[in-house]
């Protein structure tokens, strides 16, 4: 997987420290085109200067990371999962439009009570082997 070095013009630049909301906003604006997917997990700076941080980002159809929050996305590694768009929108409704799935304990307990339930929420084109999504600029 590779990281898109420049955020496409159609994706609005997001506010710092609002990664989940930034990604949801872009997803809602784009969702009819089935071009973007919502991902959550951890991101860390190359070189290991900072510990991994809970983070949200987007993935395009080709599996490339698009990060509307960080200007220097290509300087990070991303580890996480890509969710089905329908599931993300359902979780927004359940959480009163408060974004963040893995970072919300109530949503986690209610929707990920078993490996089967968790697997059902993942976008299958990115999780064919049930392995976590891992992306970096050098990964193939």
Lay out the secondary structure:
Blueprint: H1 19-30, E1 36-45, E2 53-60, E3 65-66, E4 76-83, H2 85-94, H3 105-111, H4 115-120, E5 133-135
Description of the structure:
- The structure is a single chain.
- This protein is of the alpha+beta class and 140 residues long.
- The chain has four helices and five strands, in the order αββββαααβ.
- The protein has a five-stranded antiparallel sheet.
- It is globular, with a radius of gyration of 14 Å.
- The termini are close together.
Number of helices: 4
The span between the termini is 5 Å
User: What is the residue-averaged pLDDT?
Assistant: 84
**Overall strand count:** 5
Q: How would you sum up the global shape?
A: globular
Note poorly predicted spans.
Answer: 136-140
The portion of residues assigned to helices is 25-40%
Order of helices and strands: HEEEEHHHE
Sketch the major β-sheet.
Answer: 5 strands, antiparallel
The spatial strand order of the largest sheet comes to 3-2-1-4-5
Radius of gyration: 14 Å
Compact summary:
This protein has 140 residues and is α+β, with helices and mostly antiparallel strands. It has 4 helices and 5 strands, in the order αββββαααβ.
Characteristic terms for this protein:
25% helix; 140 residues; 5-stranded antiparallel sheet
